[in-house]
Amino acid sequence: MSNFGFQHLRVVNPYDVAFEGARSAVGAAAVLARAEKYETVAEAVADCSLVVGTTAIGHRDLQHSLQRLEVGAPIIRAHLATAPCALLFGSEKFGLSNKDMSHCHWLMHIPTREEHTSMNLGQAVAVCLYELIRDPGALAEAEKGSPASAAEVERITETLFTALRASGYPKLNSSDSFEGAVRRLVRRLHLQTGDAEFFLGMLRQMVWKMKTGKSEEAKG
Question: How far is CA 155 from CA 46, 148, 165, 197, 199, in A?
Answer without folding.
Answer: 10, 11, 15, 10, 10
